[in-house]
């Protein structure tokens, strides 16, 4: 009889297949199953040929081939398919077996499934997996949460297959996140920050191209330089590469210029925005990024509107004749201003993301370690960046840190970036170039740094029309006023 397998995986789409190959490459024996069994046969005859795999044509066969306690990772479409698969697995499970959901699952489903699977005497893990198909094969970021008793069993395999960082590249981007749905929540926030990062980069590109007149060759050089700076990240790196890619369909010019400007989305950014509203936290960057994708998707409507609606032009805008025109005409200075806008906005975006994690941790009693969350994102995932080292350091020094903007390093970085940030937004506004994420980030920063906002008037309005009450600056208590009696009588 063959030796029992260390790891079971169900779902052989691109991510599942690559993750299975990753696990096997670390010295483990892997049993695989797919609902469409032809996928199993294709893998066994192809990329898994001669390797330490067992291809299975049924769940019963796969469970029979696993050593105890058995643990099975499911990489199937999020939603009902996961619930159905759990029900199919339960009859073959024994106490102590571990079921792992590695899909892009809504955290509330993982909260529910953890309790349900535990009620059956089993353990459940909901793990965020980030890094795309390359990460799955070579080392993803893994964000496991759920039944804590499962961690010591799955830890050796999970940490062996994860991306590695640190001076010796020996620190795995995988650590236990917390109970129930916390792992999938952290992955959702990762994806929301990713939405913001991508939108900010797109706005930087558009400003440099439309206002600065940079060619794709010049954009390549700019992003190459930025990737050697505090902006160093995977997204900056791939953006650099995109500007150098020529048309692969036989046409002339660059591929990026041939792509229709309609952005797709899979929903995790929307989840983060919706849940931020539920918690009452201002995650404005991800919300703006989601809406920017929505606006891009109404391409036909925008084309019609472009023939009717007019924006400013340099000749019609007297303000543009001043410092902004001077900035835009100085290519080097303008590139630097856009860089500062991108960096400062990025700091605000991550600050918002961690505030949302903190509030969610309180709401759902997860007791998250925010320094560990930053480490999980340091390698393997889409938002991986040098920048995250500073975030980890900040939370290691002050675990109850209220906001990243209050950390001296980030405070000083934004102070240094402010003039360029504001100048880039002025140029965008005066030229009619949309920069919603840049302006949203600045509005968040300006609102957060002010001790007094115009919400006093808003509260007065609410009390006037709805008797919602208010508090005063000069005495304690809750008040309601008869505004009709107090007002100046109209003549």
Number of helices: 21
Percent helix among the residues?
Answer: 40-55%
Number of strands: 10
Shape designation: globular
Class by helix and strand content?
alpha/beta
Describe the structure.
This protein has 491 residues and is of the alpha/beta class. It has 21 helices and ten strands. The protein has helices at 14-25, 37-45, 59-64, 80-89, 107-119, 132-138, 151-161, 182-211, 216-226, 234-242, 268-279, 284-297, 299-306, 323-329, 331-364, 370-376, 387-397, 408-431, 436-449, 455-466, 483-486; strands spanning 7-10, 30-33, 53-56, 71-74, 98-101, 123-130, 141-146, 164-165, 171-172, 178-179. The strands form two sheets. Strands 3-2-1-4-5-6-7-10 form an eight-stranded mixed beta sheet, sandwiched between helices. The protein has a two-stranded antiparallel ribbon with strand order 8-9. Helix 5 (107-119) links the parallel strand 5 and strand 6 (123-130). 46% of the residues are buried. The mean pLDDT is 95.
């Amino acid at each position: 009889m063959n030796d029992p397998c260390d790891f079971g995986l169900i779902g052989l789409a691109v991510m599942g297949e690559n993750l299975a190959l990753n696990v096997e490459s670390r010295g483990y024996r892997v049993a695989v199953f797919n609902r469409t069994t032809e996928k199993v046969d294709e893998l066994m005859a192809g990329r898994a040929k001669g390797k330490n795999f067992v291809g299975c044509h049924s769940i019963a066969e796969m469970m029979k081939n696993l050593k105890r306690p058995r643990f099975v990772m499911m990489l199937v479409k999020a939603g009902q398919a996961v619930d159905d698969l759990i029900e199919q697995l339960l009859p073959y499970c024994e106490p102590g077996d571990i079921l792992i959901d590695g899909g892009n699952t809504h955290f509330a489903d993982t909260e529910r499934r953890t309790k349900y699977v535990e009620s059956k005497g089993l353990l459940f893990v909901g793990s965020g997996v980030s890094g795309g198909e390359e990460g799955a094969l070579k080392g993803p970021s893994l964000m496991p949460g759920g039944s804590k008793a499962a961690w010591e069993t799955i830890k050796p395999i999970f940490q062996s297959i994860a991306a590695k960082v640190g001076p010796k590249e020996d620190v795995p981007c995988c650590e236990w996140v917390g109970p129930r749905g916390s792992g999938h929540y952290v992955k959702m926030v990762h994806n929301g920050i990713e939405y913001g990062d991508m939108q900010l980069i797109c706005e930087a590109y558009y400003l440099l191209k439309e206002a600065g007149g940079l060619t794709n060759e010049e954009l390549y050089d700019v992003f190459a330089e930025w990737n050697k700076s505090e902006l160093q990240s995977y997204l900056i790196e791939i953006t650099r590469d995109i500007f150098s890619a020529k048309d692969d369909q036989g046409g002339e010019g660059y591929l990026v210029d041939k792509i229709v400007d309609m952005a797709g989305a899979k929903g995790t950014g929307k989840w983060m925005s919706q849940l931020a509203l539920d918690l009452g936290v201002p995650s404005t960057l991800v919300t703006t990024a989601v809406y920017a994708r929505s606006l891009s998707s109404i391409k036909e409507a925008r084309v019609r509107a472009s023939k009717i609606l007019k924006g400013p032009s340099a000749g019609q805008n007297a303000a543009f004749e001043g410092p902004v025109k001077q900035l835009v005409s100085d290519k080097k200075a303008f590139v630097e201003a856009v860089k500062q806008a991108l960096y400062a906005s990025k700091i605000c975006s991550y600050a918002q993301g961690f505030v949302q994690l903190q509030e969610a941790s309180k709401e759902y009693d997860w007791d998250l370690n925010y320094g560990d969350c930053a480490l999980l994102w340091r390698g393997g995932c889409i938002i991986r960046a040098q920048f995250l080292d500073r975030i980890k350091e900040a939370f290691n020094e002050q675990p109850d840190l209220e906001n990243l903007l209050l950390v001296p390093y980030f405070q000083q970085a934004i102070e240094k970036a402010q003039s360029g940030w504001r100048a880039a937004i002025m140029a965008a506004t005066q030229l009619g170039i949309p920069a919603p994420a840049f302006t949203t980030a600045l509005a968040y920063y300006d609102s957060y740094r002010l001790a007094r906002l115009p919400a006093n008037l808003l509260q007065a309005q609410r009390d006037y029309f709805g008797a919602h009450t208010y508090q005063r600056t000069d005495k304690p208590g809750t008040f309601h006023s008869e505004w009709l009696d107090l007002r100046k009588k109209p003549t």
